[in-house]
Amino acid sequence: MKFSEGDKVEFIYRNKRSEGVINGVYPETQEVEVIVNGCLNVLFPDKAIAKVEEQERVVVPQCVDDWFIFCTSVGYDLANALYIVKGHMPVAIYEWLQNNNDNQELLARAWMDGYEVEKEPLYYVKLPFVSQSTDFEKETTYTYIIVNITTDEMQPSISNRNYGSWKAELTEAQIKGMPGGDLYWQFAVLVEEAEE
Predict the structure, then answer these.
(1) What would the DSSP string read from start to end of 143-173?
(2) Sign of CA dihedral 5, 9, 12, 17
(3) Are strands 58-60 and 115-117 parallel, antiparallel or unpaired?
(4) Which secondary structure element, helix H or strand E, spans residue 182, and what is its range?
């Protein structure tokens, strides 16, 4: 088995099962150096250790992460987190759990094994701007709306690049939350599509 620095491994050390992280690999001697208990480096034959297979984390929407944060802050356990009553939980998590029976199992797995929050799609607000390039021709160029995430100030820009606290890549909620956001939402373009 091939090992690399940083791999999590398990092995028998001082007559008990232990875990550690590989700190060095020595193919010429078929040994690996493992950090045990965070500080002790021990050499093992590479056949005496095995990689720790980490369980793949489930991916959940942001509303699940928000719900878990609330649940842990008030001391709820898994049973309380799964207690599906409309007034007991926010509408977003209630609808997510009611929408699909598999979501209840997904919530339980996320609670027990850990999870990742799915990334929200990002958009540019791309406004067309028609300019007169010659006496007879009109040219369409674009301007982008950028938002200062610290002050909520917004302004037009000829660039769709983020710089400092100014962001051109916005979530749907950020766009719709701007003054006139519903109007701007009509000009929203997925970042991936705009980059192609």
Answers:
(1) EEEEEETTT--EEEES----BTTEES-B-HH
(2) positive
(3) parallel
(4) helix 181-185
Domain ranges of the chain: 8-51, 58-117, 123-195
Strands 123-132 and 8-13: unpaired
CA distance 90 to 75: 17
29: which DSSP letter?
A: T
How would you write the pLDDT of the chain (196 residues) with one tens digit per residue?
588 888 888 888 788 888 888 888 888 888 888 887 777 777 878 788 888 877 788 999 888 998 899 899 999 999 988 888 777 788 888 888 888 889 999 999 999 888 999 888 889 998 887 766 666 677 778 889 888 877 878 888 888 888 888 888 888 888 888 888 888 899 999 988 777 6
Report residue 69: phi and psi, to 5°.
Answer: -60, -45
The whole-angstrom separation of Cα 31 and Cα 123 is 50
C-beta atoms surrounding 18 within 10 Å: 15
CA–CA gap between residue 50 and residue 151 (Å, rounded): 51
